[in-house]
Specification:
This protein is an alpha/beta fold. About 40% of the residues lie in helices and about 20% in strands. A five-stranded mixed beta sheet has the order 3-2-1-4-8. A five-stranded mixed beta sheet has the order 11-10-9-12-13, sandwiched between helices. The chain has a three-stranded antiparallel beta sheet with strand order 5-6-7. Helix 1 packs across helix 2, helix 7 crosses helix 8 and helix 8 crosses helix 9. The structure holds zinc ion.
C-alpha cells in the first residue's frame, strides 16, 4: 500500500481535510462549513479532530508522511504563523503550525493556499510534464504562485507569487492593496461582478441589468451563462478580464520564459470565453513568446484539478517535507538575519 499524507485546505467558507496517497489519489475527504465555527480556536480544534479521525481510519494501510495545511493570507513561513488573512476575519498572528503539531504530535507544513494549488497542479494536473510553471488562481481576488525547477518560489519574505497585484493599467481602478489597475481589478470575481453592476449602457446591457434585477444572488457563473448565450455586455466584461490576464502573462513570459502558464480557480470556469483575449494579448505583447517556434512554445492553459487542487498540493507539501525537500523553508530564518 502506498504511504499517505493529510492535506488541509482552509478557506473563508469551508474547511476541507483529505487523505491523499503518494500516487496522487484522494482517498477520503471531510468538509466542514467554517462560518458556524467562528473563532480560530474552534476551527483549529475541528481541523485536528478531522485529521485525527482520518489518520486513525487509514492507520495500517501505509505510513502517515505528514500534514500539509493551506491557508489564505500572509504567512510567516519560518515560524508557521498566519499573520493575517482577508478571508479569515479575526485571525491575527495565529501560530497554526505549532498549535496543530502540539495537539497531534505530527509534522506540519504550512503554506499559502495559492502556493498549494500550484503545487497540486504541478504534481498531478496540467504541470505534470514540466519542471517550472506559473499559475494564476482566480477567485474573489487573484492569487498565484510560481514553481521553479520543482520547488515553490517563496521569495525573500515568503510573499512571492502575487500576480493579482501586477499593474496592467497604471491609472486603472484603485485596489485595496494600495495600487491602481492591478490584474485583480479586472479578473477577480469581485471586480467582474462590480463591472456587471456598473454596466448600464451599450449593447446587451439592458438584458444584463434585467438579469441582475431578477437574480438576487447573481454570480460570475450567471455572467458566464449570459456570455455563452452571446450577450455582448457580458462578453465585454470577460474580454477585459482576459486582456488584463494576457498582459500579465506576456510580462511573465518576457521575464521568466517558463514552459507553462496556468489559469485556475473558480473564475477560470469561463476559460472558453476569455482565453482568446489572453492569447491575443500575449501574442501582441510578448516578443519572447513570438520568437518561440509554434511547436515548442510556452503553453497557456487552464487548471485541471478544480476545487481540490489545494488539497492535493497541501498533501504534497507534507510528502516533500518528509523527503527532506521542504517546499516551505521550514528551517530558514526569514526576515531575521543575524547582524
Ligand atoms: Zn492590488
Amino acid at each position: 500500500m502506498p504511504n499517505f499524507a493529510i492535506g488541509v485546505d482552509l478557506g473563508g467558507t469551508s474547511l476541507r481535510v483529505a487523505v491523499v496517497n503518494e500516487s496522487g489519489e484522494l482517498l477520503k475527504k471531510i468538509t466542514t462549513p467554517v462560518k458556524p465555527l467562528r473563532t480560530s480556536e474552534r476551527i483549529i480544534a475541528t481541523m485536528c479532530q478531522d485529521i485525527g479521525e482520518l489518520t486513525r481510519k487509514f492507520d495500517g494501510t501505509g505510513e502517515l508522511l505528514g500534514i500539509g495545511i493551506a491557508i489564505p493570507g500572509i504567512i510567516d513561513m519560518s515560524a508557521g504563523i498566519l499573520r493575517r488573512s482577508p478571508n479569515l476575519p479575526g485571525w491575527q498572528n495565529v501560530p497554526v503550525r505549532e498549535e496543530v503539531e502540539r495537539r497531534l504530535g505530527a509534522t506540519v507544513v504550512l503554506d499559502n493556499d495559492a502556493n498549494a494549488a500550484v503545487l497540486g497542479e504541478y504534481w498531478i494536473g496540467s504541470g505534470r510534464e514540466v519542471e517550472s510553471m506559473f499559475m494564476y488562481t482566480l477567485g474573489t481576488g487573484v492569487g498565484g504562485g510560481v514553481i521553479l525547477n520543482g520547488s515553490i518560489w517563496h521569495g525573500m519574505t515568503g510573499m512571492a507569487g502575487e500576480p493579482g497585484h501586477m499593474t496592467v493599467s497604471p491609472d486603472g481602478p484603485p485596489c485595496p492593496c494600495g495600487n491602481n489597475g492591478c490584474v485583480e481589478q479586472f479578473a477577480g470575481a469581485t471586480a467582474i461582478l462590480r463591472k456587471a453592476h456598473e454596466c448600464t449602457s451599450g449593447k446587451g446591457s439592458r438584458e444584463l441589468m434585467a438579469e441582475i434585477r431578477q437574480n438576487e444572488t447573481f454570480t460570475v457563473e450567471d455572467l458566464f451563462s449570459l456570455a455563452a448565450q452571446g450577450n455582448e455586455a457580458a462578453i465585454k466584461i470577460f474580454e477585459g478580464a482576459g486582456r488584463a490576464l494576457g498582459t500579465s502573462v506576456a510580462a511573465m513570459i518576457n521575464l521568466l520564459d517558463l514552459p507553462l502558464y496556468v489559469i485556475g480557480g473558480g473564475v477560470a470556469g469561463g476559460w472558453s470565453i476569455f482565453s482568446p483575449f489572453i492569447l491575443e494579448e500575449v501574442e501582441r505583447r510578448s516578443f519572447v513568446y513570438r520568437s518561440q517556434s509554434p511547436d515548442s512554445r510556452a503553453v497557456i492553459t487552464h487548471a485541471l484539478l478544480g476545487g481540490d487542487g489545494g488539497l492535493f498540493g497541501a498533501a504534497r507539501m507534507a510528502m516533500l517535507a518528509s523527503q527532506g525537500t521542504n517546499p516551505a523553508m521550514r528551517d530558514r530564518s526569514v526576515g531575521s538575519a543575524a547582524p
